């Protein structure tokens, strides 16, 4: 697979990554099967999909444990990215950015992942009660201790602003400016897809200007852009999309023209190209510092996503995709 570099340290990863969250958390529990997920991770590494993205909160903890079973055998082939800063309770999620907690959480992630170093350690969310510089400083100490190779920041959740047209990533940019004074940022992870292109406005250019990698989260729109979801089919109660305003039957039907556009471009590319591959190819075309991280829990989807690297979109294709109707429905 094509390789891309992220950050000033030029860390090399496969051009498409693997989001591991769906294997253990947030999506239909009845479809989460450990053995199948293990095969999917092995398939990813076989194909050169080296960036494996997880977090201690996924499960919680079970996603890191699952990856650890693969890394025990194939650590040298993988680029391990995990996150810190969020704690999962019974009915809530809270941020914890205290330096002592960060150090303990890193040690726990290392044990679960069965490795002695994390390639990219990302701050999931800043703790509003702790200056972000203190949290970032503790993470920088982990780099100096040899437990972590590089640091990343996940974009602040700002979906509510979509309806007002606000600059959605202003808060993230303010955090980035602050932490850059403490220790270099290697990568930023934020949502980017055909139906959520907001990062193109300011966040992606900020990264490009500074040699910071951009990990595109949810590049397939939580599965919608694959064209495999049927409006009104419904989701299991534990699936995040069951409570998602953009995944009501009405909004899914209203946003079908986006999928139709992806399929139209895919048909022009020929050779069995899919809507999902076109959606990922669009993300890949946004810059050499961009690495899409689609979630998957089955080997066939991993292979299809990896194949997007071979899809070369023309200027006509990109113009057509850029002209697709804006997605309807809020993210609140």
Polypeptide structure, described:
- 48% of the residues are buried.
- This protein has an eight-stranded parallel β-sheet. A two-stranded antiparallel ribbon has the order 1-2. Strands 6-7 form a two-stranded antiparallel ribbon.
- The chain has eleven helices and twelve strands.
- Helices cover 36% and strands 16% of the residues.
| Helix percentage | 25-40%
Which spans of ≥5 residues are poorly predicted at pLDDT below 50? 158-165
* Secondary structure tally, helices: 11
Query: Structural class of the secondary structure composition?
Result: alpha/beta
Number of strands: 12
Strand order of the largest sheet: 3-4-5-8-9-10-11-12
In short:
The protein has eleven helices and twelve strands. The protein has about 325 residues and is an alpha/beta fold.
Write the layout of secondary structure elements.
Layout: E1 3-6, E2 11-14, E3 18-19, H1 34-46, E4 51-53, H2 62-74, E5 79-84, E6 86-88, E7 93-95, H3 99-113, E8 118-123, H4 132-144, E9 148-154, H5 170-180, E10 187-191, H6 203-210, E11 213-217, H7 249-254, H8 256-269, H9 275-284, E12 290-293, H10 299-306, H11 315-322
Helix pairs in contact: 1-2, 1-10, 2-3, 3-4, 8-9
Protein name: Aldo/keto reductase
GO molecular function: oxidoreductase activity
Domain NADP-dependent oxidoreductase: 16-321
Key words describing this protein structure:
12 strands; two-stranded antiparallel ribbon; alpha/beta; 16% strand; eight-stranded parallel β-sheet; 332 residues
């Amino acid at each position: 697979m094509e390789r891309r570099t992220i950050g000033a340290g030029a860390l090399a990863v496969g051009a498409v990554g693997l989001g591991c969250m769906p294997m253990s958390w947030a999506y239909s529990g009845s479809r989460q099967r450990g053995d199948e997920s293990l095969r999917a991770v092995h398939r990813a590494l076989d194909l050169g999909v080296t960036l494996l993205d997880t977090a201690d909160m996924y499960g919680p903890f079970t996603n890191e444990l699952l990856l650890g079973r693969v890394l025990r055998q194939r650590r040298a082939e993988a680029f391990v990215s995990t996150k810190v800063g969020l704690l999962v309770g019974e009915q809530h999620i809270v941020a914890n950015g205290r330096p002592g907690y960060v150090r303990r959480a890193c040690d726990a992630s290392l044990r679960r992942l069965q490795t002695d170093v994390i390639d990219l350690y990302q701050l999931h969310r800043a703790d509003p009660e702790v200056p972000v510089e203190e949290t970032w400083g503790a993470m920088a100490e982990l780099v100096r201790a040899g437990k972590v190779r590089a640091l990343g920041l996940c974009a602040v959740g700002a979906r509510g602003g979509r309806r007002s047209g606000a600059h959605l990533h202003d808060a993230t940019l303010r955090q980035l400016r602050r932490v850059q004074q403490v220790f270099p940022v290697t990568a930023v992870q934020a949502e980017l897809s055909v139906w959520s292109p907001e990062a193109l406005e300011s966040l992606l250019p900020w990264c490009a200007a500074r040699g910071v990698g951009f990990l595109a989260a949810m590049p397939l729109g939580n599965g919608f852009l694959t064209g495999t979801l049927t409006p009104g089919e419904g989701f299991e109660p534990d699936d995040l999309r069951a409570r998602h305003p953009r995944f009501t039957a009405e909004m899914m039907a209203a946003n079908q023209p986006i999928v139709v556009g992806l399929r139209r471009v895919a048909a022009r590319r020929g050779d069995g190209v899919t809507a999902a591959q076109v959606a990922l190819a669009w993300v890949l075309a946004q810059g050499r510092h961009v690495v899409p991280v689609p979630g998957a829990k089955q080997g066939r989807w991993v292979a299809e996503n990896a194949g997007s690297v071979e899809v070369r979109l023309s200027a006509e294709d990109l113009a057509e995709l850029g002209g697709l109707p804006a997605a309807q429905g809020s993210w609140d």
